[in-house]
Design goal:
By secondary structure, this protein is α+β, with helices and mostly antiparallel strands. It contains 11 helices and 25 strands.
Length: about 550
């Protein structure tokens, strides 16, 4: 039997590595002034001896003192390591709201100012790199477009590329458990949550958190690491594709992407084989990226595949394909985007429906939402959970394929095209889940997504529905790489809630969070020749 590992976050992997190393103590602790006079608490870890060295910076909202293990590793490889508290956090001055904005490319540019301060110190040789995991990685994505002259490269692990689309209002629906859990759990100022609530549309406020809009400004190579079940899966991929293709000369064509089978935390439900991890997809080798750019002027970059990704599969069937690492020269990889149609008898088929006037309806009650069970979550249950406990609800429609005769790999973006209406509601949500049904009956979650009806045409403005009118919706389930094994079935679940992952829509036309009144909506999914609702799967030829 092959050795197996639990799906886990790369954050945990790096933390475990760091925990095995004796932690350094900072050589210096300095209050570094920003352009507006606010001073940020900064720890500096110097290598032994005299000299000047390249430096690696991490800026964090979690406390600058928790990086001693990383500092030791960096010092041993000949790097200064610098750790800094975000503005308004721990020992730094100022206020912490809006979180992440102060490190961006706007009025305050704390990342830029810190990089340039480091480069000017007598112990630095003028080269500065950035490393970050989760929130510190987001800070790097925000900093890069400000173009600090002495920034050389970055190592970004699990981060959004657009705060509105991937963090706060996925599909226009408020990510309740993520935002409330993270902001309140880490004791951020309450103004942060209030600001998120005050901007339910993608307006000018959110454009200052959208790194994709300014990817052309990024001028340094970045290594991006992400996971298929991570809360920022789409952000990792979008960051890579936009900068790799549209970045400035110093970044374009020089970035790399590695995607694993993990989430933003631990999940024990599905265990994948512990196959050999490629060198630059292994977080224990994080310093190798800095060696290439800060010591060798880019020599060795051509030896790293542009894209490395783990193809998941049935871990209990070693004879089936899957559970392997693959490489590619670009993303997305070549695939045949194939529609699988929802049929009124509950099947999922390649043949489009021929009948007319076919539909299925259910009642969605915001006070009795479908409970979240797994997925790309942070605080609550996460990862590839078995969906059977919630699939028999009357407000969940299931569409399941026949058993597959041959394995089928999907790699890339997954979307659902849905024709739907609501009997009386002027606004509601529609959700979709993609599941891998095992021969023993387990219905394992692969991906899920949501669309708020008022944002069916644009995230920039709300358009209420006319009750009873049929509309076309697109639900973005983000991306994955998975082999559905022979004997497995493909399942799609359609509903209107997934709580508390997403805040239930009150069905009243009022913004989310307004529960002074709610309505029960009768929502209808159309499944006929004129309205062929379906899922689009990126099928890879084998």
């Amino acid at each position: 039997m092959r050795k197996r590992i639990v799906i886990t976050t790369i954050t945990l992997v790096i933390a475990l590595i760091a925990a095995t190393i004796s932690c350094a103590e900072p050589t210096l602790t300095i209050m570094v002034p920003m352009r507006d006079g606010v001073k940020l608490a900064t720890d500096v870890y110097l290598p032994e001896g005299e000299g000047t060295w390249p430096a690696i910076l991490i800026r964090t909202p979690y406390g600058k003192s928790g990086v001693g293990g990383f500092a030791t590793q960096a010092n041993q490889r000949g790097y200064v390591f610098v750790s800094q508290d975000f503005r308004g956090r721990f020992d730094s001055e100022g206020v912490d709201y809006p979180v992440f904005l102060h490190g961006g490319w706007g009025e305050h540019q704390d990342g830029y100012d810190t990089v340039e301060w480091i480069a000017a110190q007598k112990w630095c040789d003028g080269k500065v790199g950035g490393v970050g995991i989760s929130a510190p990685a987001i800070d790097l994505n925000m900093m890069a477009p400000s173009r600090p002259p002495h920034l050389v490269c970055q190592y970004v692990v699990v981060a959004f590329s657009s705060m509105y689309h991937q963090c706060v209002y996925q599909g226009g629906a408020f990510r309740k458990s993520l935002m409330e859990g993270w902001l309140n759990g880490n004791k951020f100022a309450p103004e942060n949550l209030s600001l998120c609530r005050a901007h339910p549309d993608y307006d000018d406020f959110w454009k200052d958190f959208d790194c994709e809009r300014v990817a052309n400004r990024v001028n340094v190579p970045v290594m991006f690491l992400g996971g298929w079940y991570d809360i920022f899966c789409a952000g990792t991929i979008n960051s890579f594709t936009t900068i790799q293709k549209n970045g400035d000369e110093g970044a374009r064509g020089k970035c790399r992407l590695a995607m694993e089978a993990y989430g933003h935390g631990r999940s024990d439900d599905v265990v994948f084989p512990d196959n050999a991890r490629p060198k630059f997809a292994n977080p224990s080798n994080w310093l190798d990226w800095f060696d290439i750019w800060m010591k060798n002027d880019g020599e060795g970059i051509d030896e790293i595949p542009v894209v490395q990704y783990f193809v998941m599969g049935d871990p209990n069937d070693p004879d089936m394909p899957g559970n392997v690492w693959k490489t590619a020269d670009d993303w997305p990889v070549p695939a045949n985007v194939t529609p699988f149609y929802f049929i009124s008898d509950g099947t999922l088929r390649l043949q489009s429906p021929k009948e007319s006037d076919v539909s299925l309806s259910y009642k969605y009650d915001p006070k009795d939402p479908v409970p979240t069970l797994g997925g790309a979550n942070l605080i609550i249950t996460k990862g590839p959970k078995d969906q059977r406990p919630i699939e028999n609800r009357p407000d969940v429609l299931l569409f399941t394929s026949d058993e597959l005769k041959n394995p089928m790999e999907i790699t890339g973006s997954v979307k659902v095209k849905l024709w739907a209406s609501s009997g009386t509601a002027t606004d509601t949500d529609f959700t979709a889940k993609l599941c891998d049904v095992y021969p023993d009956g387990r219905s394992i979650l692969v991906l899920d997504g949501i669309i708020c009806a008022r944002h069916r045409n644009s995230m920039e403005k709300s358009e209420l529905m006319e009750p009873g009118k049929i509309y076309e919706f697109e639900i973005d389930l983000w991306s994955t790489s998975l082999v559905f094994s022979s004997g497995h079935r493909i399942r799609v679940a359609i509903s209107s809630s997934n709580s508390p992952r997403f805040e239930p829509n009150p069905n009243t036309g009022k913004p989310s969070g307004r529960y002074d009144e709610t309505e029960v909506a009768t929502n209808t999914i159309y499944l006929d020749a004129e309205h062929p609702s379906h899922i689009l799967l990126p099928v890879v030829s084998r």
